[in-house]
Amino acid sequence: MNKKVMAVAIAGLFAAPGVALAQKSTVEIYGRANLGIDYYEAQGAANPYNNREGRTRIYDGSSRVGFRGTEDLGSGLRAIFQIETGINIDNGSNSGQGGQANTSSGFWASRDSFVGLDSNFGRLTFGRQSMYWANGVNAQFAANYINTEIPWTNGTQLGRISTAAAGSAPARVSNTVQYTSPTLAGMNLTVSFSPGTKESVQNIGAGTQVDGSIWAVTGRGTWGPFYAQIDYADVNVPQINTAAGVGQQGQGQAYKVGGSWGYMPGARVGLIWVRTDLNNAQGTVPGVPAANGDVNQDGWTINWEHTFGNVQVMAQYGWTNDMKGGGCSTATISCTDSASTGFMVGARYFLSKRTWLYTSYNQVSNDINQFADYTGGAITSTSGAPLPLGADPKIFALGMFHAF
Fold this sequence. Notes:
Layout: H1 2-24, E1 28-43, E2 52-60, E3 64-74, E4 77-86, E5 113-119, E6 122-130, H2 141-145, E7 172-180, E8 187-194, E9 208-210, E10 213-223, E11 226-241, E12 246-264, E13 267-281, E14 293-308, E15 311-320, E16 340-350, E17 355-366, E18 392-403
Antiparallel strand pairs: 1-2, 1-3, 1-18, 3-4, 4-5, 5-6, 6-7, 7-8, 8-10, 9-11, 10-11, 11-12, 12-13, 13-14, 14-15, 15-16, 16-17, 17-18
């Protein structure tokens, strides 16, 4: 009996420090599960052979799990960290609905993850972080409510041709340093910089070197029921092909301005304008300017949401203009008839504050030289190359969302 008592006492001595540490820990586990069933199709392509026939899918809408925490260092200084990972609960892999890679899931820290310091003078962090992409409360249907939304709410399709074309609208960027200022008079500022993907070997002698940088700034403000946000990003992707003896450089800029009015709890209406510029684009996709082509494209989105008891309804309507610029004269297909329109209607029914059921219908009508598609979260059923020119994607979805 005495031996048993002694063993318990010794075990207690070793366990006590661990219990004390656990009580002082600020680490939080959080996440969400967002899954459902939908129907996707893209008919009306310029070449009917390229139509995407309708298919029923079980999809994952950016489910995730994360760890975050803080440590008080004294004098108003805090250490902070976050490690957030996207998880595809529908298939247990990192592939999207078309079999394409989903870079926001399947690996540790695939979503916003960082370590840094926070104080009364602002926050400085290093890691994989978002720049330009998010819209705050101006439009959070795809981010926090349902499955997806109008494709150009975060930037025109022109900006998603390819990173090599230096036109990709930045979203979640690896190797990023970010500073966020304190909030003064309801406003603050975030400045981000990434020197590019430095993990790859930069061997000029082998033939091709790909390197570059991205920097972005976001200003946001809240004044009572009004919220406004402005974003700018500059993407620089030089390419040097020494084997051919040719030097090429691509550059792109992305602009975004949005504002909204929360006219009652759970109800908001707003407008977002986006613009993408491609300079010296090295496009190889039909409808994209050839070498040294400069083009730009504008887009608009109107957002609305309103809550009736346990039901919240939402809607979007938006359009993009034709591509314009001097590079259009060298495009493989003319920039004319490159506009698109789209809309989304949806609703969610709250089972609790953290759990709801939802339904949505999304549709885009592309002109004969446009290929706007639902690319966020790799939810499109088109893998690899962009959607066929002129095809009109549609998605009808029923889903369930649970946050923890």
